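User: Please look over both lines:
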Amino acid sequence: HRHHMLARSRLPAALPLRRLLSTKAIPPPKLFDYATVTSHIHVSDAISAVEAAFGALARGKVDVPFPMHIGIDETASAGPGDCHIKGGYVSGESTWTVKLACVSFYKNVADGLPPGGGIFVVMNAKNGAPLAVIQENRFLTDVRTGAAGGISVKYLTKPTDKTVGFIGTGAIAKSMARATAAVRPGFTGFAYGADAEMAQSFCDEMRAELGCEFTAVGSAEELCASAKVVFTQTPGSATVLERSMLQPGSTVIASGSDQPTKQELPVDLLANCKYVCDLVGQVSKVGELRSALAAGAMTEADVYAELGQVVNGDKPGREGDEIIVCDLTGTGAQDAAIGQVAWEKLSKL
């Protein structure tokens, strides 16, 4: 499979030392706190930028290294928790981004804190200077993940598919619902989660915010019978639906698997669908595809397309009543895109 990497630039061999020892200081980066970020950045801001980034990714115009993972083991002074580091640069853009997303710090709950945090570092692509440190505590990650979900709805479903289900009803589900409303206004929503009270709260909040009807249901089977578009965004510790539950022409957009230990969808569904993903080289290691490869049910050649290929028109998206699965693990291209969007908005404040 092709590599989405750009050639590294090199310093001229004979650059004079006096030019390397600059007398000018690089200005310090601007710091934007969580409240500022959440009050000024919205999913609808991100969709077009993330869509363009997927297109560039499929054309090999994004330098996106494989994600780094740092495990924080539980000791008297630390953890347990995980830190995921992603980043990327979209060729021709004026910034690039590196992101630290810290999750699963579950001991925080006892102190009344969220189970993690995160920052985006936005860099000047012309001179290598840091422009901004954005305290976003995974908010921008959820926004760019939601944008990918909205783009998946745009390209992989029929315009008449207006029943949308959400398995898992946390922050990412809300971002997916907001993005869906941006591309498919007036949809009817259904939700199912292990915590029925949380699912009902999700429905109430989304109904009030989006002006769409939302109903909490009692099982994944009931949800799939009600919805043609199914979002799954769970911890990925167990599969959340069965292939037999899906209606003909259903689209499943899965975003819960982002580590080798996670799996939301059964292998027989993956092996018997039109399988689309964000980045083959990544989903084969940490996405849903990993489990199908391990079971010998699929090879990378069975991947129908990357989402960017569909965005670019290289491959058609929805064609009929086929079952489509879109596997979203999150890419540095999306982080680069939302980092640029955030900088363009926040730097004007």
